[in-house]
Amino acid sequence: MTSQGTSQIATNDTIIAFHFWDDVPYTRGICLNVTLRFEEVLDTAKLHDSLERLLEIGNWRKLGARLHQNESGKLEYHLPPKFTKDRPGVIYTTANHPNPISSHPIASQIPSTQETNQISVLGCMSNFNSITKHRNAPNAVEDYLSSDVPQLFIHVVTFTDTTLITVTFPHTLFDAMSLSYFLQAWTAILSGHEDRIPPFLGFDEDIIEAKTEYVPAEQHVLAKETFTKFQMGLFVLLRWWENYWYRDVEDKVIAIPNSFVQNLRERALQELRAQSSQSSSEEVFVSEGDILLAWLSKTLVAALNPSPQTPVQISNVFDTRAILNISQTGAYTGNATIPSCTSLIAQSLLTDPPSTTALHIRNALNEQRAPTQVHAMSFLRKKTLRETGYLPIVGDPRQISVTCTNWQRARFFELDFLAARVGKACTGVCRPSYINTAGPTPLGPHVARNLVTVTGRDGVGNWWVQILARAGAWGRIEEVVRGLEVDV
After folding, report:
1. Exactly one of 49, 143, 352, 416 is catalytic; which is it?
2. Name one GO molecular function term (predicted).
3. Active site residue 416
4. Which of 46, 283, 371, 417 is the most buried (most CB within 10 A)?
């Protein structure tokens, strides 16, 4: 990576203040590599040209801004007046392998879509970085701050039968929906439909803040469950203990047939309807995401083998764009998510049917994504940040925390790169057969644990889930998966 003099940047660049929720501890701490696998050869020149064109269209050029930190320690964007060869809007690199992907020792292990009735636990996500990610791509926000580089690094790897597109970016830039907006805009240009590109929202206005109404933090349903400073200290100490005794973390993939999820959900609905009061006029409902998270949480916690009374906190991240009336007007690229929290104990999670847990998750989500609760959580988060430097954590310091981010709404598996396909008539579709998300490698002992990412449902119906967990738990996770599979 090259570096330019800061005086030049300050003189010529447009300086744009960061949106409030883009510069918080968790966004600063994460840099992601998201890989799309295609069972086709794609034209790298077309991909590059369309990408550069996107950054010329209106406020979409903000994606080419540089990341800097001002004297008060706040992040800010420095946007060049024009992108040039020396200061491009995106770093775009390619690698070509004149053989099929099956001949490569690492790339051949990358999963892909296939119809199956079996649940499969597959290889570590971060192991693929050596082939999917360019060696000079950043690993952390500090890498951006120390060099005058754009935030988007795109690395395209082609084989004779496969293409891998990897987008490297800091979490300060994108959440999952933001990444989806970017990829949808890119494919619109590829296919010659610039008219389908939505307006870029939030160029120099913090729309989330503008749409947030004042509701006292104390009115949030979780306000009284937020950690005190003492509880936060105990929580950090217990996490240090966990990291000391279980240093190794592995990030693996679970492929789950849609039939399994549908059967699980249908059984859950039957059980919940049977349990509901005859006088209740409300229809019992749990979504595919609810039952999947309930099953995954049970699987993961069982593998950790806690004592029966161990508290469990399930955090289910949801998008606030629609709640704040933002998504209807364009593409807001930034961070717009908050978690809904469900508190349980290990014994109930492990002994109750998944339907019960799924209903708890659904009820918590319904309650906590109500507009007044979203507004109150915004002020609760600000209050806690101001007092402690951390975002609020609720529950019990001794708890097992399971965090889930479900990307199904982002529709990554529905992206169509057909217009870039090489050597075939441009008919049909060209959609990802697999999506891999990984942080930097190697995985250190302080990386997030019990983190569940549902990347979505592919073209043949498989659900893809990626989990970060103790390395020593994966053998048990596979045993539990096999055992639960027989039960359904």
Report:
1. 416
2. acyltransferase activity, transferring groups other than amino-acyl groups
3. yes
4. 417
